[in-house]
Automatic annotation (TrEMBL):
Native source organism of the sequence: Companilactobacillus nantensis DSM 16982
InterPro entries hit by this protein: Cupredoxin, EfeO_Cupredoxin
Domain EfeO-type cupredoxin-like span(s) in chain numbering: 15-122
Protein name: EfeO-type cupredoxin-like domain-containing protein
Pfam families found in the cross-reference section: Cupredoxin_1
Amino acid sequence: MARILVLLICLAMIGFIFWWFFGKHEVASATADVADNKQSVDVEVKGGYSPEVVTLKKGVPATLNFTRKDASSCLDRVVFSDFGINKELPQNEQQSIEIDTSKAGEYQWACGMDMFHGKVIVK
Ligand SMILES: [Cu+2]
């Protein structure tokens, strides 16, 4: 009986590893709605970023509203190295970060340890 259980656990783990490395992971992306010459996108921080790719309109003042729901300290900072932004994300509190949209391009953001990533596309 115990053997069968061990076998089942092993199979489940192998399945998980295959899914992790070879499975298709959908990248959640969002495009900001522009209203009154402003645009904003809410980003949930929970084991990563959702959405992970945010598209903004060039030249329209933009804010990304990060809310960290994850207790892990790994995600307690968000860093936009292109903009010199390094902000703390208090848990369960919305933190608004203004993004410079004057230049088109792709800008990465990351957690404080550069383990989790997201991307802003300005176009
Ligand atoms: Cu981290």
